[in-house]
Write a structure and sequence with these properties.
Blueprint lengths: L2 H28 L2 E6 L2 E5 L3 E22 L5 E8 L9 E8 L4 E8 L6 E14 L3 E14 L7 E4 L1 E6 L4 E9 L2 E2 L4 E10 L5 E9 L2 E10 L4 E9 L6 E3 L1 E5 L12 E3 L4 E3 L6 E8 L3 E3 L3 E10 L5 E9 L2 E10 L4 E9 L6 E9 L12 E10 L12 H10 L23 H9 L7
Parallel strand pairs: 1-9, 2-10, 12-20, 22-28
Antiparallel strand pairs: 1-3, 3-6, 3-7, 3-8, 4-7, 5-6, 8-10, 11-13, 13-16, 14-15, 14-18, 17-20, 18-19, 21-23, 23-26, 24-25, 24-27, 27-28
Length: about 450
């Protein structure tokens, strides 16, 4: 076959392909693309965020776009705008938007990058999120739409607005819970006052339930007009409740269409203690100050003890590490009260290793329930001075930890107890010197 004939056929074929593509482009662009707000109508409550999509339908060879979206400034605040997935299906894109806070509109732009064909079909161009600050209604006005194809030619289009209805929310809340008295014997009555509030825009009927820990002690139906509040009294009969500390809380049932439910429940600020009608002391918490302490240095252990009996008591409390006594202190407590005892543990004579910490309240005369006299919590590692992470070697991780917390003091967020090697309440050059002195040491 003649080579020139083959070349002629190839050129002819290419010519027809180009003609076909141009015709196809022309036919595709002849159709009008529709860009619209979706959903077309939105209903949202004051205090809510809501999002709308800007969607495109029936577009051919879309390479870039721009639109403006307007709203009523007195009703809505813009939260953000993000690019949709439509153009990203083809490749890398550049998206940006500008918010005119005084005019109540935004301009959003997006384009493909590089020598690529545009995208055809339907999809989401962008997603816009608003915050509702007042009641009312307004159009979500989509205008000044520009669509460009990969030949930088305008694509015919029509824009369809959305509309928003912004209403008062349905919202009930528990704003206060008070209990009295704060100490009681089994069988006593504890009075609980719950303040419920209707923070929405409609009259609401709902239930208020009161709990002692997780057990229901009362339930009442409440009707509140919008913006009103009411104190609801409850009586807790403590018959059948054992000795201990009880968190009293109240919960409002969720009303229809309620979105903000975080404030439907609230606990009282103070616990209620049910006493034992006799002598009874207990350890209720043990909290080591550090999880790792350098051998030869001190650390502290906080122990909370409580008098659950009806008599004033003086008793000893002992802190132990692996059942070996560290220190004993005496304390006096009136009925129903608690206190924190701070123990100091000097580790000079203690071997390196892991120690389980517990505290023991010595029984008082006449005490019969001693099951809660012991409380174990926490493990403390006695290790090489400067080893703040408790892995028995002093390395760069320990240095970094101390440097990160350097300059902080007890009570500050940056302060890390393990990094305060000499336990003087601050992380300073002395702690740095200690970690550098022992750098590279390992145990065993």
């Amino acid at each position: 076959m003649n080579i020139n004939f083959i070349r002629f056929c190839s050129l002819l074929l290419l010519f027809f392909v180009l003609i076909f593509e141009l015709a196809f482009v022309h036919l595709g662009q002849a159709a009008t693309a529709t860009v619209s707000v979706f959903p077309s109508t939105v209903t949202a409550s004051i205090g809510q965020n809501f999002s709308i999509d800007v969607k495109i339908v029936n577009v051919f060879d879309l390479y870039g776009w721009e639109f403006k979206l307007g709203w009523n400034l007195s009703l809505l605040d813009l939260v953000n705008a993000v690019e949709g997935p439509f153009l990203k299906a083809r490749g890398s894109t550049y998206f940006t938007y500008k918010h005119n806070a005084t005019g109540g509109y935004l301009i959003a732009d997006c384009t493909l990058l590089g020598m690529v064909h545009g995208v055809s079909g339907s999809g989401i161009l962008a997603t816009i999120t608003f915050y509702v600050k007042n009641c009312g209604e307004c159009p979500l006005d989509l205008y000044d739409m520009i669509l460009l194809d990969s030949f930088e030619q305008l694509i015919p289009n029509q824009a369809v607005d959305g509309y928003g209805y912004f209403i008062y929310p349905h919202d009930v809340a528990i704003t206060d819970v008070n209990a009295s008295p704060l100490t009681a014997l089994p069988g006593d009555i504890v009075n609980i006052n719950v303040t419920a509030q209707n923070q929405g825009g409609y009259t609401e009927v709902f239930n208020v339930t009161v709990y002692a820990n997780s057990e229901i002690v009362g339930k009442k139906s409440v009707s509140l007009d919008k913006g009103s509040s009411k104190i609801i009294p409850f009586m807790w009969n403590t018959t059948g409740f054992g000795k201990g500390d009880y968190t009293v809380s109240a919960s409002a049932s969720i009303v229809p269409s309620e979105v903000d439910t975080a404030d439907n429940s609230k606990a009282a600020n103070q616990i209620v203690t049910i006493l034992y009608p006799g002598h009874d002391v207990a350890v209720i918490n043990v909290e080591p100050f550090k999880t790792a302490v350098g051998q030869g240095y001190c650390t502290f252990i906080d122990v909370t003890v409580k008098n659950y009996g009806v008599f004033n008591e003086t008793f000893d409390t002992t802190v132990q590490a692996n059942k070996t006594a560290i220190q004993t202190q005496a304390v006096t407590l009136t009925s129903g009260n608690s206190t924190i005892i701070i123990f100091t543990w000097n580790t000079t004579s203690w071997s390196k290793g892991n120690y389980a910490i517990n505290a023991y309240a010595w029984p008082v005369l006449g005490e019969t329930d001693t099951t809660d006299n012991t409380h174990a919590d926490g493990v403390v590692t006695v290790t090489i001075p400067g080893n703040v992470d408790g892995d028995f070697d002093v390395d760069i991780y320990d240095v970094v930890s101390i440097c990160t917390a350097y300059g902080s003091k007890l009570g500050q967020l940056q302060y890390k107890p393990n990094c305060d090697i000499n336990s003087d309440g601050k992380i300073d050059i002395y702690d740095v010197v200690i970690v550098c002195t022992h750098y590279g040491q390992k145990y065993p």
